[in-house]
Amino acid sequence: MVHVYTDYVNIMGESVHTITKTAEALAVASTEIGLEVNAFKTKYMVMSRNKEARSSHSIKTDNSSYEREE
Question: Would the pTM of this model clear 0.70, i.e. be above it?
């Protein structure tokens, strides 16, 4: 078994919905080539001038939930 580690992958989008869909696509593509996204080590950050956009959102995919980093 080969272990490969990637420290940083940035997923950017205009909405939580877009980011969630992209995260799902990443997880599917990773699985197809034999890799796994470690949801325990994966965090997300919201950066916006809009105070409403900075409110807490939950990012959940079919199999995982991601913790928010401040």
Answer: no
**How many other C-beta atoms lie within 10 A of the C-beta of residue 5?**
6
Domain assignment present for residue 25? The answer is: yes
Domains held by the chain: number: 1
Is there a domain that residue 5 lies in?
Answer: no
Which range marks the domain in which residue 29 is found?
A: 16-68
Q: Which of helix, strand or coil describes residue 53?
A: coil
Residue 4 counted as domain residue: no
- Within a 10 A sphere around the Cβ of 28, how many other Cβ atoms? 13
> Which distant-in-sequence residues (6+ apart) come within 8 Å of 39 by Cβ?
63, 64, 65, 66
Q: pLDDT by residue (tens digit) across 25-69?
A: 888 888 898 888 887 887 777 777 776 665 666 677 777 777 777
